[in-house]
């Protein structure tokens, strides 16, 4: 479900929930509670999940390969094992030596990416990109989800939002603390884009101790993203605490942190949320286009004041094709190059460019070449850290 720089690797299985540096994490499925163990691992073997699940995306960003096996075979993955990513197989107690993957001719270069944006999970990802030499400065932005900040900092967002004003402020200051470290790691012309909290109920239940979390039959289509943000005054106050703390600590450098609204459907929803959040006029607020409704509302969302657009390809695919991106049973139907998906992405890019609004498209490394051929040029492409690093070094 996620590739790495090595096609064959060997290690000791870790079947606990505790981090064991350099091990191969073995779990029935990937979820937020495994974050520390996951990022410490060299590879992951799991029994469920999909290509573009959130935890799989973190692995892709870190270059950690993820291999899914049948649940019935998971018990046999123990001790010393060797993973063969190309053949998608596992050998127990093998002495196979790792070998590095060789680049393929004709792969996309950094010049093809426009204003490149790195999708990151933590501070280390910025260091990884900016250590790539002079070409690192061509990555002009880093994109991070607020929930990933929470995972790394041990924060419980819904518990904080349901607490006292002091709890809400403390949450905002904790997020700002993390962001300050990120800003300090940026090169002079780079910026950071924070995707506002988008915690689905099934994910929220795993990181919440005090607040009540609704049980939804279909969390992907439930109360999250812009819908949840619109109903939370506490989050508005927490976001004000974030911005206030950034201004106090960073001064003018706080302007390098931009905001992005997740899971928005149309211009009215975007405009209503902008008013609800009561943000200062000088704070750029962009929109994520990741539903078919948003595709058709692109021009109107731009006219409503969106500073920028990000095409959330992973969600866009699952909603266009009615195929859960986290369910391996429908992996054959989840097609990132489906003509309907390409048509939707093309419409977004054309509408945004017509209104003069910058637009960036997320691409898996395997799809980038196809998108370059099929789409009109956006302002830039977004890629996970490890895949973008390979493009930079190859260039």
TrEMBL record:
Q: Where is the PEP-utilising enzyme mobile domain?
A: 21-67
Entry protein name: Phosphoenolpyruvate-protein kinase (PTS system EI component)
One annotated GO molecular function: kinase activity
Q: Which family does it belong to?
A: Belongs to the PEP-utilizing enzyme family.
Q: What superkingdom heads the lineage?
A: Bacteria
> In which organism is this protein found?
Streptomyces clavifer
What keywords appear on the UniProt entry?
A: Kinase, Magnesium, Metal-binding, Transferase
The record places domain PEP-utilising enzyme C-terminal at 188-361
List, alphabetically, the Gene3D superfamilies matched.
Phosphoenolpyruvate-binding domains (3.20.20.60), Phosphohistidine domain (3.50.30.10)
